[in-house]
Amino acid sequence: MLNTWEAAYFDLSRERLLGLAERAGRAGIELLVVDDGWYGHRDDTTSGLGDWYPNEHKLGGSLDELIAEIASRGLAFGI
């Protein structure tokens, strides 16, 4: 499992996540877990919690599209 927190903190983007997935797959990792920062306007620890709507601007599209792209690289997806 690769958790994105230490690799990206709040600095998530589709390109960064797909790059992590690509490298994780080559290393034999089977699961990519996207940690804090994928939803709402959560860009730092002073932002509120509880807005569980995906930030499509940050993710470069819908969460379903991102999950499909991660799966196409052979990894399961979690949040």
From TrEMBL:
One of the GO BP terms on file: carbohydrate metabolic process
Domain of life: Bacteria
Keywords, in A-Z order: Glycosidase, Hydrolase
Matching InterPro entries: Aldolase_TIM (IPR013785), GH (IPR017853), Glyco_hydro_27/36_CS (IPR000111)
Gene3D superfamilies according to UniProt: Aldolase class I
MF (Gene Ontology): hydrolase activity, hydrolyzing O-glycosyl compounds
UniProt-listed Pfam families: Melibiase (PF02065)
Family membership noted in the UniProt record: Belongs to the glycosyl hydrolase 36 family.
Protein name per Swiss-Prot or TrEMBL: Melibiase
Native organism taxonomy: Bacteria, Bacillati, Bacillota, Bacilli, Lactobacillales
